[in-house]
Amino acid sequence: DGGITQSPKYLFRKEGQNVTLSCEQNLNHDAMYWYRQDPGQGLRLIYYSQIVNDFQKGDIAEGYSVSREKKESFPLTVTSAQKNPTAFYLCASSSGGVSSSYEQYFGPGTRLTVT
Amino acid sequence: RKEVEQDPGPFNVPEGATVAFNCTYSNSASQSFFWYRQDCRKEPKLLMSVYSSGNEDGRFTAQLNRASQYISLLIRDSKLSDSATYLCVVNRVGYSTLTFGKGTMLLVSP
């Protein structure tokens, strides 16, 4: 079964700790994305990657970091510098590469709560 | 003007009703348009792409009006299972990314 997996589904952390969210896809997609969704809000783009070993900041990259060492994997680290990290984090992938805007497919998401 | 704007709703309709949502976008150079469906506390799922000529998938019809910069989604014969938030999505011109609207909530009642 092809798809996108995110783990864990729920994550709890203490303030001041860094935390890494996992995202894996076996769709052979080139592009991967991280979004954040807050209650009553739309999806906001954090980071995206169109190709291995390259990534770009989205609209709200401050306090986050990513890596893209493998085509299948795009982990997101929420650092202690992120002021309001509690949110629903969604990973997506797309077959589109540079200069294209193909439909994106989402993983089930990770709900992060920081107290 | 926001990049993608939608009426948040909720739209309350009885089963069997026909309901339509509109969405406006700000950049006339946009080329890719989609409707996604998001159930409560779940991930968005692609409902359909929107083509210039309009397209239909069962009970769902999507239309694009480039002159007025809006897209629409029509749902016929609403089912209880259609209750969800519908997200309007447009490509961000000059980037290989998408911009998501905040969504329109639909509640279908028996």
Account of the 3D structure:
The complex is a heterodimer of chains A (about 120) and B (about 110). Chain A has about 120 residues and is an all-beta fold. Chain A has strands at about 5, 10-15, 20-25, 30-35, 45-50, 55, 65, 75-80, 85-95, 105, 110-115. In chain A, the strands form 2 sheets. In chain A, strands 2, 4, 5, 6, 9, 10 and 11 form a 7-stranded mixed β-sheet that branches. In chain A, strands 1-3-8-7 form a 4-stranded antiparallel β-sheet, with no helix packed on it. Chain B is an all-beta fold and about 110 residues long. In chain B, about 0% of the residues lie in helices and about 55% in strands. Chain B has no helices and 11 strands. Chain B has strands at about 5, 10-15, 20-25, 35-40, 45-50, 55, 60-65, 70-75, 85-90, 100, 105-110.
Roughly how much helix do the residues of chain B carry, as a percent range? under 10%
Low-pLDDT residue spans of chain B: none
Q: Mean of residue pLDDT of chain B?
A: 94
Q: Averaged pLDDT of chain A, please?
A: 92
Kindly state the number of beta strands of chain A: 11
Oligomer: heterodimer
Q: Which percent bin holds the helix content of chain A? A: under 10%
Which percent band covers the strand fraction of chain B? Answer: over 45%
Radius of gyration of chain B: 13 Å
- Unreliable residue stretches of chain A: none
Query: Which H/E pattern describes the elements of chain A?
Result: EEEEEEEEEEE
**SSE run of chain B:** EEEEEEEEEEE
Main beta-sheet strand count, sense and barrel state of chain A: 7 strands, mixed
Individual helix count of chain B? 0
Number of strands of chain B: 11
Number of helices of chain A: 0
What is the global morphology of chain A? Answer: globular
Specify the overall morphology of chain B.
Answer: globular
Structural class of the secondary elements of chain A? mainly beta
